[in-house]
Amino acid sequence: MSNYAIETVGLNFSFGNQTIVKDLSLQVSKGSIYGFLGPNGAGKTTTIKILLNLLKSPADQVFIFGKEINSNRIAALKKIGALVEQPAIYGHLSGKENLINRCLLLRIPKSKVAKMLALVGLTDAGDKKAGKYSLGMKQRLGIALALVSDPELLLLDEPTNGLDPNGIIEIRNLMIELATKHNKTILVSSHLLAEIERTATHVGIINKGQLLFQGTIDELHLLSKPMVEIEVDQIENASAFLVTAGYEIASKTDSKITVPFSSSADSGKLNTLLIQNGFTVSSLSKQRKDLENLFLDITKNN
Amino acid sequence: MRSIYISLVSEFYKSRKTLAFWAAILLPVVICSLVSFGFYSGADKILKLNAPGMMLWIKYAGATLNVMGILVMPFYVMFMAFSVNNIEHKNDTWKSLFAQPLNKFSIYTAKYLFAVTLIFICLFLFATLTYGFGHLLQVLVPKYTFSQYNPSNFLINSYSKLFLSSLGILSLQFIFSLIWGDFLKPIGIGFVGTIMGIVAGMVNWTYAYLIPYSLPALALQITQVKKGKDPLDFEIFAREIWVSLIYAGVLFIAGYFIVTRKSIK
Question: Which fold has domain A4-222?
Answer without folding.
Answer: Rossmann fold (3.40.50)
